[in-house]
User: Fold these one by one.
Assistant:
Number 1:
Amino acid sequence: MTEAEVSAKSEAAITLPIPRSFPELDTPLALIEHPTLLRNIGRVAQAARTRGLAVRPHAKAHKSVDLARLQLEHGATGITVAKLSEAEALAAGGIDDLFVCYPLVERTRVERLIALSRRARISTIVESEPQARLLAEAATAAGVELDVTIDVDTGLGRVGVALGPPLEALVHLVERLDGLRLRGLSTHEGFVYGIADPALRRARLTESLSAFVLAGQALSLETISAGATPTIFESMEVSGLTEVRPGNYVFYDAIQVALGAASLEDCAFSVLATVVSVRSGSSAIIDAGSKALSADAGVHGLALLSGYGIVLGRPDVSVIGLSEEHGWLSLDPQGDGVQVGDQLRIIPNHACATVANFDRAYLWEGESVIQEIPISARGAFS
Amino acid sequence: MTEAEVSAKSEAAITLPIPRSFPELDTPLALIEHPTLLRNIGRVAQAARTRGLAVRPHAKAHKSVDLARLQLEHGATGITVAKLSEAEALAAGGIDDLFVCYPLVERTRVERLIALSRRARISTIVESEPQARLLAEAATAAGVELDVTIDVDTGLGRVGVALGPPLEALVHLVERLDGLRLRGLSTHEGFVYGIADPALRRARLTESLSAFVLAGQALSLETISAGATPTIFESMEVSGLTEVRPGNYVFYDAIQVALGAASLEDCAFSVLATVVSVRSGSSAIIDAGSKALSADAGVHGLALLSGYGIVLGRPDVSVIGLSEEHGWLSLDPQGDGVQVGDQLRIIPNHACATVANFDRAYLWEGESVIQEIPISARGAFS
């Protein structure tokens, strides 16, 4: 085990001795702890308010109209989504300010965006000249003006233009094109997930975002927007940023705990599973497999995880493998063991990938379920 | 690259030069090639018929009422499912002979099973004494008799009793309990996924299933049922087996290709994705990430895979990473490259885990979509 894992497991033992049990509900199911959710949303909202920053949370993390609305009630200025169909699902639920942070490259999809822009306030990203021209032509033909940011690659190497001449050329193009209104720059500094050392992560973040901010200021752009959960509070310290777009922070998960970006007590999302078979003192099977928990073992190079989640209150129990519908537990022979029928609460590796498997999650507090939360944009990929 | 991968990639280049494109459909989407699907179902049906074996395919692979019905039309005697909620979803679609191959351990779930058994022919597994007693008590209280098999662990180490005294004790218990009717023995020889060498895999399979069959015959049991796709045809050669329960064989996938259990031409399921960003001659991004393709890199110890699927007809293109909504392509600099807007067809690592992410799949042939297939039991975990 890594130090972060040891620390996470010790903490589980100390602060959360009793797994919550909901015998009336069939497992596996997705749970969201209400006080923790509110605290997570509130902390980011408060920190941003103090610094005069806008918050535009990323709904890919929860895919839920209810949680997006909660974020807006806490002062978010709008919602970010990865896919157009997520925007459509949230707009259908009444969310009216949506930033589609994904390069739309096909006319059919751009036309869907324009149709949506007649029902809600919509913006999107531009990251190449052909894509800018496609958006501009479709918008002009439809007689609308689309708000856009230019997406910048600040180190993840996924989408976005490079700083310097490529960015400047694209800014000048977009400013000239009819149908587009340039709102500013956006980036996702997701490279921070690949840096295990917190001090190095912070240094790389600050260096990278500072260059990004300078570019935006040199071009006199109004919005300079970034966001990644592991470094959300550090990014707010970068002078000149105007907006943050964290996603996972509503839930946190085993990846964030491994990175030291959250404690187990910050984790609002868990999967409740039932022990269905005990083979020996050292192994057992639960009814949550890869289709429920997700087989995601960390994106963007994270190498801190082992296994498939943290079993709350049970440092003696590890989820060491997943079949489709079975989770494989390893039991410390010195621990208390498990019984068939026991319910265990598991913080998944990646909450965003996990909640997206479920049709609904249960918002709970103490021993009671408060509300069923539809995962409104589940399955919304296109 | 392993030899299997090199072979898979060469084969892709030879037999499937042109990726099918469906410009009218928004990606990423799930495709099922109709002729290949029919051939896969037909081959297993024909081989089983020749040997007088029953086929009870596992619907976890497709979670679809339509495909279950197709399997029944090809002579399947019933359908296997992993979860009770899958059985409920298929029964609601008119599938009337369902084997819930999962240990039900809670009274609420057993009562759901009994309720379902009034609407369809239902059977399930028993793998421990307390679980047998729970099923028997609930069935007796409800005035029904439940068909059961006793599940045997033949090497996977997941669920099931061991051969020998544990099995004999459980058989004698179940035969004495009111409310249960013992149909026979069942196993899932999933350990074959962990054996890379085909000759060794076959030898281990034969040894293991032969012992399993002997146990069933010694106990004079009617049904002796096993099934795992990589060795489905080999298992049919094991004398005395009465039923096979393969799942993945309807689709096959990159795992089966890596195991040598299928060729790329056997793969009926693919994900169509669009290139959304090209960064250089060596890398690009598609609009299918872990939420669509699944991050499953092989269960039960398979170590033959690298990356997240096989790009059909493009041996020069590899899917080397997945964010939630982005797939990372690596491009061979000697290849043809890709353009923004290109559609690529990808055989996922694990088709069962992938199809379960989608609300629907498209059955197609040649250049036409024939039918939309609802993934009826998507999200059915409980």
Number 2:
Amino acid sequence: MNLKPLGDRVVIKILEAEEKTKSGIVLPSSAKEQPQMAEVVAIGPDILNDEKKKDQIKVNDKVIFSKYAGTEVKIDGEEFTILKLNDILAVVE
Amino acid sequence: MNLKPLGDRVVIKILEAEEKTKSGIVLPSSAKEQPQMAEVVAIGPDILNDEKKKDQIKVNDKVIFSKYAGTEVKIDGEEFTILKLNDILAVVE
Amino acid sequence: MNLKPLGDRVVIKILEAEEKTKSGIVLPSSAKEQPQMAEVVAIGPDILNDEKKKDQIKVNDKVIFSKYAGTEVKIDGEEFTILKLNDILAVVE
Amino acid sequence: MNLKPLGDRVVIKILEAEEKTKSGIVLPSSAKEQPQMAEVVAIGPDILNDEKKKDQIKVNDKVIFSKYAGTEVKIDGEEFTILKLNDILAVVE
Amino acid sequence: MNLKPLGDRVVIKILEAEEKTKSGIVLPSSAKEQPQMAEVVAIGPDILNDEKKKDQIKVNDKVIFSKYAGTEVKIDGEEFTILKLNDILAVVE
Amino acid sequence: MNLKPLGDRVVIKILEAEEKTKSGIVLPSSAKEQPQMAEVVAIGPDILNDEKKKDQIKVNDKVIFSKYAGTEVKIDGEEFTILKLNDILAVVE
Amino acid sequence: MNLKPLGDRVVIKILEAEEKTKSGIVLPSSAKEQPQMAEVVAIGPDILNDEKKKDQIKVNDKVIFSKYAGTEVKIDGEEFTILKLNDILAVVE
């Protein structure tokens, strides 16, 4: 069972704390909007067909996104988040 | 009796709990905006005539949409929701 | 005496409860925005002159529209509602 | 002394109750935004020079407009209202 | 000492009550937004260089504008108001 | 040490009270938004490269701007304000 | 480990107080929005591919930005801020 995001949306899977530790990322617990780290699972057609956007993000990329962005959904027991490309701040390499 | 949505609207029929279980989708009961699953019943002309949009969604597709989006209407005893394409987050395959 | 709507407006006449029953439509009494059924009486020039919009709606069409949209006016004892095309959700056939 | 409206504005003169009765229009006293009837006195250059807009309204046309739209001004003892074309809902014929 | 307004701004000088009486204009004291009468002193370059706008207003024109629009400034003891062309409602002839 | 404003921003230096007196400008102390007088120190590239904007303002021009616009910054003991061109109301000559 | 900002975003590293002293910048502690000084670490593709924007900012530039703009993230023990180009006010040379 697959999720195909519409428009300029992206499906991501949030990375758990252990993974964050392994990758060396620690997110600060300040009063500011807190970003989170996730892995890209699927990319919407408006991104794939846009010359400027299609090279900015790929499936399996690790990304940082705005914590309060997007909608969570559980499929076959797994949790995903669907959000707009614009809510993804950066790719971590 | 048929509903023909105007502009970039879509008519969907919400899938009941049993159906959700069969298809393996469970929607989380968090404090966040909750998405819902539905089946596409009719698609507005601005989507069908748009080269970029017309391939993203088809009648009978199962979709996830924002719970608070759209307007409910009952026709011949059946309940439908009319909403904008932009309120549909993803197609489930 | 006639009403000629300006711009992308439409003049509609709300259908009474009996008529709704005959046509088989029942509108739910939920807490959500409630749609209403009406008949199209006149269509503004910006719709008639727009290639994309002019085929979406015709005089005498039965339509569902957002209950809180538009402005009511009484002419020669008859009540009409003037609203934007965008506030009409669907045509019922 | 004349008022020449700027941009896409229109100068109108509100029709008094007697005139409304003669023309057969009665405006409902509901809780909704109440429209009013008026006569067009002058039309701004952005309307007269717009191919799409210039045929929609003429001086002396009787129009229905949003009650809370526009600015009132008294010139030589006469009261006028200056408002945007977009606040005029329909022409009454 | 001169004021050269930037962009689509206009510098105006508010006409005093006596002048209003002479010109026959009386502004109503209603609860609605109150317009005021003024004389055009200087016109910004975005108006003078716009084919559609440059003929709508000239220096020395008497204009009606929204009372709460613009910024007041005193130069060499004289008070002026700097506002956007869009806040000028009409020219009085 | 220099400040190079980005985009359509301008760096200005606020003129002190004595200078205002010499140049004959007195700013009113009303309840309305109060403008201030300043000298242009640097101009952003989006202004210098825009045919319509580049002639409206030059370094050393005396300008009037919205008091609450922009961001203050102190460099080498001197205070500057960085603001958008659109927050500058007029040039004083 | 690297941060690649998406769209028109920039990754910056805030300069500490000592560095500010060395570079002679002191930021005022007023009630107004307070700017901060930082060094550019990475620049997003929508800036690098835009003829107008790509020359306005370079990696290693010292910049002043709006204090409340952007999102903080810690990678390998170092803190960065990801923000939009539009939230960078000026380059300091």
